[in-house]
Every structure is written in structure tokens, then in C-alpha cells.
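Input set for joint prediction.
Command: fold jointly, output C-alpha cells.
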Amino acid sequence: MINSYLPILVILLVSAFIGLAIIVLSTLLSRKNPTPIKLMPYECGMDPIGGARRRFSVRFFIIGMLFIVFDIELMFLFPWAVVYDQLMIFGFIEMLVFVLVLLAGLIYVWKKGALEWQ
Amino acid sequence: MESAVPIILLIVKVLLVIGAVLTLVAYLTLIERRVLGFIQVRLGPNRVGPWGLLQPLADGAKLILKEEITVSGANKFIYLIAPLIVVTCALIPFAVVPFAKGLGLENILGPTAQAYGLNQGVVSDTNVGILFVLAVTSLGVYGVILGGWASNNKYSLLGSVRAGAQMISYELGLSLAVLGVLLLAGTLSLVQIVESQDSVWKWYVFRQPLGFILFLIAGSADIGRTPFDLTECENELVAGYQTEYSSMKFGLFYLGEYAHLLFLSALMTTLYFGGWQGPFLPPIVWFLAKTLLWVFIFVWIRGTYPRLRYDRVMSFGWKFLVPVGIFNVMATAFIYTIWLQYRG
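C-alpha cells >
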């Protein structure tokens, strides 16, 4: 257990440290001469109109929700795939039923128009 | 005192792997620019050093010395942490990619070789390798979304929301494509997946041709490569979520992007092309050669195909990749069952 997860902890710390070190280094080495105009959000050279944190299309929210549902259902396929050798025909039929339910959900979402972008 | 030695050796090994990855990533930028140059019948960068070999160093030095701008109205902490999340999540998955059979250091290390898999050609031989990869690469989306939101810029916000939606949509296709390989290999460990491909005919590209094509498409959409680079669609979104980033914070996003490209190529090699397996040459040479061939193919794709429209990318992901991926998994299971029955 620790033989395989300690290396991951080490690589996590090393990569985070490298990222932080690069940012600190560039903060120390670079010149700074900020002016209000330079710090203005970029909007093709014009003064920005209104704030940036506005509402955006609800489609993105729907996609996020669908992703959670489908990704969790797909997670059930991983343990099934790994032990498939022992399950054979029983496992195949079980999973066929499950996948058909999943596909029915996808078709429902599709027919409801949740996957359209207009 | 005795127990500190394996940990120090482990840190040295991790530093060597990360160092190699960072060097390769730096040179990927040069490879990409040179190859795109030749595709477009021009030279590409060739002034700094012979054949432009020092160009990545010059770029790095330039980025570090550039003025750092924190845009007004930005959420400072999130603005700072976002590139860190991206680069960390791009580097961690290399922990589970097997790059060689073993390091051949049994005699030097002695009994300490047992600890932490120090003699293995992989940083961590965890038994949930693929799940770990999928989990960590999904976490990288947080960096993109937070960076775009914290920038106080409309283009950044739109770019990050687009990037997030695209990455999570193609994550499904990627998981489904990988499932076919898992089913045949019967393991989640990348080390064992490579070991099961010990002759060319056992490479999963031949046993999973449809799954391989799905993986290629979903993978390049997941890391936002052309033709799916909607996240940085210049003519609509300036530079997408990186618009307000400058200096080395931009550099870190860039690093993360190329690390993703290198990782996808390495994963493609590992899952479908036998990883480090190959005759005559040492395993690490085979691994690097196959990985760099895939990097070249991705650059070639970028030099060849135009960008798709966003609504088409999304509907392709949901209406084509997911159903075909499910079909591929079930068809693989069906054929595999019949094959096991007739074999005995």
C-alpha cells in the first residue's frame, strides 16, 4: 500500500513545489511598473463595458449535470471490466441490461433537446 | 537513519523523472514549431543555437523576466493558484506511466530496491493506475475554470466555461475507449497492461481498433488539441482562459498544455502500442521513440485540420462518441466471451 502511494505523494509535492518555485522566481526577477491602463481587463482595446462575471448559457450547466450522472454510471463498468474473465455470460447479460438503461437515459436526454445548442 | 535512505532515493528518482518530463516538454514546443514550419513550407525557429536547439531556454528566460501583471478586479488568490493546479495535475499522472521494465540497479541498491518500487521502471506501480489517471486529469479542469473566472475578463470566462464543458464531455468518451482495453487485460495497472502486450500481435491497437480510434479522438479533444482547440479559438475568444495571464503564470499554463500532449502520447503508447516492449533496443528507447512518434502525429494533425464549430464538437461528443463507445465495450465483451468459450 505505502509502497505505491508514497511515491504519488512525493511526485505531488515535487510538482507543486516546481510550479510555486517558478512563480516566485519570476516575481523576484521581473520588473514591475503597473499603470491603471495596463492593468485594465483586455477587451480588444476598448474600455471594458460592465463587469465580467455575468450570466452565461444554461447549456453549460446542463452539460455539467449530465456529465456527473453519466460519469458515475460509467464508473460501475470499471470493476465489471476488470473481473470480466470470471463473470462471462452472466456478467455480459447483467451489464447489457444496465447499459440499455443507460442508453435509454441518453435517448431521453437527446429527445428532450438537452444536447442541442441553439 | 537506515530508513531515510529509501526515501531519499525515491525523491531522487521522482526528481529525475520530473526533470526528464520538463525537458521533453520544453523541447516539444520546439518540435511543434519546427514541424509546423516544415508543414507550412517555412523554416521555423532556427536562430538560437544549432537548429534552434536553445530556443526553449531563450523562451523560458524571456517568460521569467517578463513583467507580471495582475489584472485589476481579479480574485488574487484564485488567479495565482489556477496555473499551479493546472501544472501540478499535468505532471502527477506521469507517476503511473511505465517507461522501462526495470532500472537494472539491483546490485547497487541491494535490499533497498524492494522499498517503494525503486528498481521499477515506473514511479508508482499502483493497482488502480487507469482510474488514477482519469481522476487526476479531470482535476485539471478546476485550474482552467478557476483561472478563467478569476481573471475578471469576459473572454476568459467564456473560454474557461467552454473548456470545462468540452473536457468533461470528452472524458466520457475517453473512459469508454479505455474500458475495452481493461476488459481484455483484466487489470487497471498500467504496468500489467504493458506486460500483457509482449508481442506485436498482442498490441491492443489490433485487438481494439475501434476503441483506439475513439481514444485518439476523445484524447485530443480532452487536452484541447486541434481540431478541438475551441478553448483558445483566437478569432472568437482572444486566447480563451489565458487571456489575462502574463509572464511565467502564462508559462505554467503553456507548460501544462504541452505536458498534457506528452502524457496523452505516452498513454497512447502504453495502452495500445506495447509501451516499452520491443526487440534489440533498450526498453526506454522504444518507449521514447513511440511516444515521440505520437507527438509528431498530433502536430501533423494540427498542421492539417481546421478547427470545428463548438456546437458540433459538443454534439459529436454526446451523440456519437458515447453511444459508439458503449457499443464498443459491449461488442468487445461479447466477442471476448465467445473466444474464451471456444478456446476451452
